[in-house]
Amino acid sequence: MKSIHHIAIICSDYEMSKDFYVRVLGLEIIQEVYREVRNSYKLDLALNGQYIIELFSFPNPPARPSRPEAAGLRHLAFVVEDIEAEVQRLVNYGLIVETIRVDEYTVKRFTFTSDPDGLPIELYES
């Protein structure tokens, strides 16, 4: 294996999740496709020109536990340069952001917020 190609996320409200990942987090749209046979959208997103996320909509997807300690995907982590500025930016969008903590092993600062479906999003200061 050479690298991760992408992360696929199924959302419950496509327009709300699209707005979150594009406008709030600042990911770039590579391609958006409506698949009529599946009644589903597929949105390819990039960060700094690198393809990283496929955002899918499906009619009535089942709920899945997604808090950090639940089985399955624990969280998505994004590197930020200035964690206080990024936290303030997200708070300005109305997001709830946890208190900034320090990783006891790396001594790097990090915090969490959530996407519209409750998927934990970590901000990790470089």
TrEMBL record:
Keywords attached to this entry: Metal-binding
Organism of provenance: Reichenbachiella agariperforans
Alphabetized Pfam families for the sequence: Glyoxalase
Protein name, per record: Glyoxylase I family protein
Keyword DNA-binding on entry: no
Annotated CDD domains: VOC_Bs_YwkD_like
Gene Ontology MF terms: metal ion binding
Residue intervals of the VOC domain: 3-126
Entry-linked Gene3D superfamilies: 2,3-Dihydroxybiphenyl 1,2-Dioxygenase, domain 1
